[in-house]
Specification:
Layout lengths: L7 H4 L2 H12 L3 H14 L7 H17 L5 H11 L3 E3 L6 H13 L5 E5 L2 H17 L4 E3 L6 H9 L2 E5 H17 L7 H6 L15 E5 L1 H7 L5 E5 L8 H11 L8 E3 L3 E3 L1 H9 L3 H4 L6 H13 L7 E4 L2 E5 L6 E2 L8 H9 L8 E6 L1 H5 L4 E6 L6 H8 L3 E3 L9 E2 L3 E3 L2 H17 L4 E5 L2 H10 L5 E3 L4 H9 L7 E5 L12 H5 L3 E5 L6 H8 L9 E8 L3 H6 L1 H7 L6 E2 L4 H35 L1
Parallel strand pairs: 1-13, 1-14, 2-4, 2-5, 3-4, 5-13, 15-21, 16-21, 17-19, 17-20, 18-19, 20-21
Antiparallel strand pairs: 6-12, 7-8, 9-10, 10-11, 16-22
Helix pairs in contact: 2-4, 3-4, 4-5, 4-6, 4-7, 5-6, 6-7, 12-15, 12-16, 15-16
Length: 609
């Protein structure tokens, strides 16, 4: 049986869940709390129907607290999660409620359950939703906040269920590693110490890694797999030798592609480029070098040719701020390593900061593999099911929606140039605005979001880097009649978009993708913003030959059609964009596989020390 199909055994358990729900509905609040206490006592040696009783109990607590009846699909997803699987649920199916179901089951053991979200606003919102439900059953909820004092974090981790941003859980683990190192301990497998059945030691923030519920699991476990978590020192301090980076930037601007350097994933100097870079090296700079001069020049070349302002970074208050490539959100606490950040600062004319020194690091996959049991949910997992099984041992199941999806997905429109594409988008948006249909325009980059904003002829709201509560409020209003919202592709994930009746009569929310992403899952996440819960809605992509996907991975294809007379090209060419996308996905999967192998080798090496 394919792992991405609902498992019949689990589906057949829904009637039993409903029987328990009916039973608990007749009980008093006091009796429900007593049942929860009995389940806690049973958790160390549960009966076969333990999950069914626990899930039904928390579902009834949610009903009493928030007047929300769990859909059958939500109960089914909760059961899959409690059994340690990854559930794909269509966008808008109520994953906030679903997360409570396995969290309650895991929390009954007394070992702590961690619910990892994608940003601080969602963590706070979901914890506030969960707290009164768990209070009703005698369990506690903690919330991790960025930069909280250790005493607060101790209390958050001591709770039965702890909500927080996924990266914050990882950074707390690294902080505990540093505390262990400061205490003179040298055990190579630090997580094993934390998992021993010992009281939590005061110098440790976390008390172990028993259970994790990961929201937007494909993003965390796949998309961010190649971005390690790093605790560094020295970052954002003034650099003692800024002239080195400025000199490298000046030389990079004089080097010729093909002759002095090659442009692949990173710019690399040719033999002639090595000679030329050293010929141009000023004598007074030589004494300031901290590494090979060619490293500085190659970083400068990548900052000049590989990284773009308003795509990969912005400059704010004389500071270079990285833009997350998957979410479009700003990451003020993140820096590039190995002198690249300083090369970008020189290229952008910003203040040059000190290079950061890595004190502790772990990849996201390695961190989540510390947990005894991990489960997750997302709107897009089918495409990554094989990789998730191989990397994490997690089976992926698709949970059917509560109501059939009636989304109208229109064929991609293909254009010769970005200017022609944007003009066509502006015309399409104007027509939909005239009839009162709400439109959400998804952009891969800040640069493109501002480009479409410059040509629209109707009122719009622009969201391209702001975060958390403001972001959620803007996205939540995107379904109002005649509203036009421009946002980076994943902005607002987790925020509900109400589509009132007037908007539905006009066709429902229409989503426009300004280009295809490197990953089909990111495209599907954008499309999933519309036509939720059986509502009407539609989506369409507009692509052009100068899109990043084609420019970076299939430039010859673009050159062959560049002289085409018409601005709009045959729609059949859209299939080539999808073929390029699949090729890039294969390359990225292979890179993540190699990273996993490196992690495994590193762990074996540490174990042998």
């Amino acid at each position: 049986m394919n792992s991405w199909l609902p498992q019949p055994r689990t589906a057949k358990l829904l009637p039993a869940l409903n029987r328990y729900l009916a039973l608990y509905r007749a009980e008093s609040d006091t009796r429900l709390a007593e049942i929860a206490t009995a389940l806690r006592a049973e958790a160390h040696k549960p009966a076969p129907d333990f999950h069914l009783r626990a899930l039904s109990l928390i579902a009834d607590a949610i009903r009493r607290t928030h007047a929300l009846e769990a859909y059958p699909c939500q109960l089914l997803a909760g059961l899959h999660l409690a059994e340690g699987r990854l559930s794909e649920m269509a966008t808008g199916e109520g994953k906030t409620l679903v997360a409570l179901l396995p969290a309650f089951v895991f929390a009954l053991s007394g070992k702590g359950a961690h619910v990892a979200t994608v940003n601080a606003y969602l963590a706070e919102r979901d914890a506030a939703f969960a707290r009164p439900c768990f209070d009703r059953l005698g369990l506690t909820v903690g919330l991790l906040r960025d930069r909280d004092q250790p005493a607060h974090k101790h209390r958050a981790y001591a709770a039965d269920v702890t909500y927080g941003v996924g990266t914050e859980f990882g950074f707390d683990y690294l902080r505990d590693q540093l505390a262990l190192r400061a205490a003179g301990r040298t055990e190579p497998r630090f997580h094993e110490i934390l998992l021993r059945r010992e009281p939590a030691r005061p110098r440790f923030i976390q008390r172990g890694h028993a259970f994790a519920v990961v929201d937007e699991a494909d993003s965390v476990l796949i998309d961010e797999a190649r971005s390690p978590l790093i605790i560094s020192t020295g970052a954002k301090q003034p650099n003692a030798t800024p002239d080195v980076y400025h000199h490298a930037a000046d030389i990079a601007a004089q080097l010729e592609p093909g002759t002095h350097f090659t442009r692949e994933q990173r710019c690399r100097l040719t033999t002639e480029g090595h000679h030329r870079a050293h010929e141009l090296l000023a004598g007074e700079i030589l004494a300031q070098l901290r590494r090979l001069w060619t490293d500085y020049v190659e970083n400068a070349l990548h900052a000049l040719h590989g990284l773009r302002l308003d795509v990969h970074y912005i400059v704010r208050d004389d500071e270079v701020v990285i833009v997350d490539e998957f979410t479009g959100r700003l990451c003020p606490d993140r820096t590039w390593r190995g002198g690249l950040h300083q090369a970008v600062e020189a290229q952008a004319g910003a203040a040059i900061t000190e290079e950061s020194a890595s004190e502790a690091t772990i990849t996201r996959p390695a961190y989540f593999r510390l947990y005894a049991k991990v489960c997750g949910m997302t709107g897009t997992a089918k495409e990554a099911a094989t990789e998730i099984r191989a990397s994490y041992g997690l089976e992926t199941v698709i949970v059917p929606p509560n109501r059939p999806c009636i989304r109208a997905l229109h064929p991609d429109r293909v254009f010769r140039t970005r200017a022609a594409k944007l003009a066509a988008v502006a015309s399409d948006v104007a027509a939909r605005y005239a009839k009162g249909q709400p439109v959400l325009i998804g952009s891969r980059t800040i640069e493109n979001s501002e480009a479409i904003a410059a040509v629209l002829t109707v009122p719009f709201v622009l969201l391209n880097g702001k975060q958390d509560a403001d972001e959620a409020a803007i996205i939540a209003g995107a379904g109002r009649p005649g509203t036009v919202t421009i946002a980076t592709n994943m902005a607002g994930r987790g925020a509900h978009i109400p589509v009132p009746a007037e908007s539905q009569r006009a066709g429902g929310l229409h989503v426009i993708g300004l280009e295809r992403h490197d990953s089909a899952r990111i495209d599907r996440q954008l499309i999933g913003r519309c036509a939720r819960q059986g509502e009407p809605g539609s989506a369409q992509f507009f692509v052009s030959l100068d899109d990043d996907l084609i420019a970076a991975h299939a430039p010859d294809f673009a050159k062959g059609l560049a002289q085409h007379a018409a601005d709009e090209l045959p729609g059949t060419l859209a299939s080539h964009f999808l073929r390029v996308q699949r090729r890039v996905e294969r390359t990225d999967r292979e890179a993540r596989r190699r990273l996993k192998q490196f992690d495994e080798w590193l762990n074996e090496l540490k174990g042998a020390l």
